[in-house]
Design a protein that fits this description.
This protein is mostly helical and 175 residues long. Helix content is 67%, strand content 0%. The N and C termini lie far apart (81 Å).
Length: 175
């Protein structure tokens, strides 16, 4: 007696369900695209809940610090242009043509709009996902590494001020 072959293998069934979930998730993301203010408000509320969890639990400072560094990195990528005009100027000088990378000074020259290295939607999506992952990490004792949190706060403030100063100097040189 031969058993009939199943129409669908377990792997195919799981793959189909995963594909269906992915499409539905992407549809929700696509629908949320025009609602910039509401997306950022929800991310701010999620960050507030995360920070409240850190304060109430009195732990997981390393998770909070890691999230802060990651969010700072995302913010810097959001502020930087995709194509650095100062780098294209340097390339033009090396080639013997120093007018290729310069900004337009006359009406007949081409205008290049500011294109961000990290678009706003990807910035929001990455930040929200990181905050959600950090929040989940605060529920596992494995990530509660004992550290002296004031040192992390001071180090983060120093890192933030130095990178902000570098970005400000860079913006002044470009503009």
């Amino acid at each position: 007696m031969d058993a009939p072959e199943p129409d669908q293998t377990p792997f195919a069934a799981v793959s189909a369900q995963t594909s269906r979930f992915t499409r539905r998730y992407q549809a929700y993301l696509d629908k949320s695209t025009p609602y910039v203010t509401y997306r950022w408000i929800s991310t701010g509320v999620l960050l507030l809940v995360f920070l409240l969890r850190i304060v109430i639990a009195q732990g997981w400072y390393i998770v909070c610090y890691s999230l802060g560094i990651y969010l700072l990195n995302l913010f810097l990528a959001f502020l930087q242009p995709k194509f650095d005009p100062s780098l294209t100027q340097d390339e033009g000088i090396e080639d013997g043509n120093d007018a290729t990378g310069s900004l337009p000074t006359k009406a007949d020259e081409e205008f290049r709009p500011f294109i961000r290295r990290l678009p706003e939607f990807k910035f929001w999506y990455s930040a929200t996902r990181a905050i959600a992952i950090g929040f989940v990490c605060t529920w596992f004792e494995l990530f509660n590494v004992p550290v002296f949190w004031p040192v992390l706060v001071v180090y983060w403030i120093i890192l933030f001020s130095l990178t902000s100063k570098l970005i400000a100097v860079w913006f002044e040189s470009v503009v």
